[in-house]
Amino acid sequence: MLPGDARSAWDPSVIDDPRVTQLWDGDRIVGRWLADHQTGGLDRGGGVVWDAFLAFAPSARWQDEPSDLLTAGSTIIANTASLDDDFLPVLAGS
């Protein structure tokens, strides 16, 4: 979403945890879908969700829409308190 963004410049080791799935959405397919469906109330403008986190319960299933959303936020750095409050307890319990 920023000039110069490239998968080759992305460091996936930033979140090095086997419970975390990180994906590259170079064509912005998921980012547009999330914006269109206002998933987690995220709206970054421009019709694409980016620099965001979404945490789902272990019971979550992606059918027509994702279920069991625990927390979402954007931008990531500006919402670390939400990560601490909502997301880390889920990781601690897994």
Order of SSEs, N→C? HEEH
Overall pLDDT metric: 81
Q: What strand line-up does the widest sheet have?
A: 1-2
Radius of gyration: 14 Å
Major β-sheet profile: 2 strands, antiparallel
What is the end-to-end distance?
32 Å
Enumerate how many helices there are, as a single number.
Answer: 2
Q: What is the domain tally?
A: 1
| Stretches with pLDDT under 50, minimum 5 residues | none
Structural class: alpha+beta
What proportion of the residues is helical, as a percent range? 10-25%
- What's the total number of strands? 2
Strand content: 5-15%
What characteristic shape results from the CA principal axes? Answer: globular
Could you explain the architecture of this structure?
It is globular, with a radius of gyration of 14 Å. The chain is α+β, with helices and mostly antiparallel strands and 94 residues long. The chain has one domain (7-93). It has a two-stranded antiparallel ribbon. The chain has two helices and two strands. 23% of the residues lie in helices and 12% in strands. The chain has helices at 29-36, 80-93; strands at residues 52-56, 69-74.
